[in-house]
Amino acid sequence: MNIQLQAEYEQFIQTRIATGRYENAEYVIVKALKLLEEWEKGYQEWEEETQKKIAVGLASIENGDIVNGEVVMARLSEKLRKARDTEE
C-alpha cells in the first residue's frame, strides 16, 4: 500500500525515527495505528457505559425518582465544604 502524507506528518515520522526508538516509517505508523485502535476501543466502552447510565437515569425519572436540582447543588456544595474542612 502506498500512501501520501502531508509534509508535517512526514517530518513527524522522520523525527521519531531519528530518536532511535523506531527503525523505519512502518514501525511508527504501526504504533500509531495500535494506539488509535486502543483509543477507539476505550471510546466505544465509554460510550456504551454512558448510554447505560443515561438509560438508568431515564428509568429513574419515569419512576418519579428525581431530586430537585437545587437540592442536588446544595448536597454537592456541602460535600465540597466537608472535603475542604477535612484537608485543613
What does the model show?
The protein is mostly helical and 88 residues long. It has one domain (7-87). Helix content is 78%, strand content 0%. The protein is built from 3 helices and no strands. The protein has helices at residues 7-18, 25-62, 69-87. The radius of gyration is 24 Å and the shape is elongated. The chain starts with 6 loop residues before the first helix and ends with a helix. The model has no long low-confidence stretch (mean pLDDT 94).
Q: What are the main properties of this structure?
A:
88 residues; mainly alpha; 3 helices; elongated
Secondary structure blueprint with pairings:
Layout: H1 7-18, H2 25-62, H3 69-87
